[in-house]
Amino acid sequence: MSIVLSMAIFFVVVTMVFVTITLLFPESMGITGKRAKKIIEQQQEQDPEKKKHDDETKP
């Protein structure tokens, strides 16, 4: 019984740590955060010619 309780507590603690890190540093966990979305938008605004060229070359 004590092993099951210990494993359950360990699982809850690890899950809480994971959720906390995910909320604080989404990019480090592979989640696209606000910073990454802003960078993507800036890059799309800076390269309108490249986007136009890419659209023309698609079949």
Order of helices and strands: HHH
Report the sheet with the most strands, covering strand number, pairing sense and barrel closure: none
Mean pLDDT: 82
Stretches where pLDDT falls below 50 for ≥5 residues?
A: none
Category from helices, strands and their pairing: mainly alpha
What percentage of residues falls in helices of 4 or more residues? over 70%
Shape: elongated
- Name the beta content range: under 5%
The end-to-end distance, rounded to whole angstroms, is 64 Å
Number of helical regions? 3
Tell me the total number of β-strands.
0
Fold and architecture overview:
The chain has one domain (2-57). The protein is 78% helix and 0% strand. It is built from 3 helices and no strands. The protein has helices at residues 2-24, 34-46, 48-57. The N and C termini lie far apart (64 Å).
List the main descriptive attributes of the protein structure presented here.
mainly alpha, 3 helices, 59 residues
Give a quick precis of the structure:
Helices cover 78% and strands 0% of the residues. The protein is mainly alpha-helical.
